[in-house]
Amino acid sequence: MTSASAAYNQCLATTNSQCVDVGLSAVPETMLWTLHNRVSVASNPDKTWFVDDKAIDIYSAIDYDYERSFGKAEESHGLRSWLFDQGIMDFWRANPEGGTIVNFAEGLETQRFRLQESRPAGSLWITVDLPPSIRARENFILPDDENLHVAASVLDTREWMHLVPKDKPIFFTAQGLFMYLEEEENRVLFQTMAKEFPSSTIWFDSLAKWFSDKTLGEVGWNLTADYKAPPMPFGANKNVAPGMFQSWVPNLEVEEVPWPLHLASGFFLQYVAPIILKIPILKNLQPGIVWTVKFPPSLN
Ligand SMILES: C[S@@+](CC[C@H](N)C(=O)[O-])C[C@H]1O[C@@H](n2cnc3c(N)ncnc32)[C@H](O)[C@@H]1O
Name one GO biological process term (predicted). Predict the structure, then answer.
């Protein structure tokens, strides 16, 4: 298998029509960052836990200098995608008749291809992302009757809610979304979902407050000399976030989903991070946290 950067060079070196300019900027451009990191895992033959040839193909076909923007790829987004894959497969195991996956802000995620073999026949998958992002996605991944694309903000709930069957179980996912929204926008979205889709579940990740503040500061978060991450206005420390979510929707159940550090590379993540994450004052500063939230059966 080719390495990620070799694959990119192939695209640079050719003028063939496979080499696509996806023309992304601002928050939609961040889907190339997560793809860059995910593909570094998928193209590493030692990481047999993450197989994703489609992501490698898409990565290779995009005319974009990933390293110049995002620097050397690392594995965080591969670990995150693996974790969310487990959540979706658990949902399907619990609902073998097939429930609906609603994937917010899916970008160039190729998750549904990775999970195809586990997917109950006839089940529905709905992707909701901003119009420029859906345009970029549709260069490589087309919707069909069982895989719908909605080109709209998740906040425009009238655009996607009517597509979600209410008589079947629902699993929402949002990888790398809520940090880009304002707290108030997240609150209103949660309250709408709780009202419209009682008993549904959502998995998502969020940032610590210090991390969000860093992206909002004067210097911002510069991944490289050529790329500053967009502002990420929503952040809440690990000890604060559950109470905040419950203040938005009383009686919602919230639990942290632990990072799969056993799959991570390097001494620090495998051996030091698990210890740090047990020290109260430090664990609350954990930069990125994955949550599972179950909305209550009713709002009364
Ligand atoms: C960091 S990328 C994550 C993409 C994908 N989930 C992944 O992990 O590779 C952020 C994504 O959020 C999407 N996004 C940002 N604001 C959005 C909104 N209001 N509604 C829907 N999608 C949004 C962007 O278009 C982009 O696809």
Answer: methylation
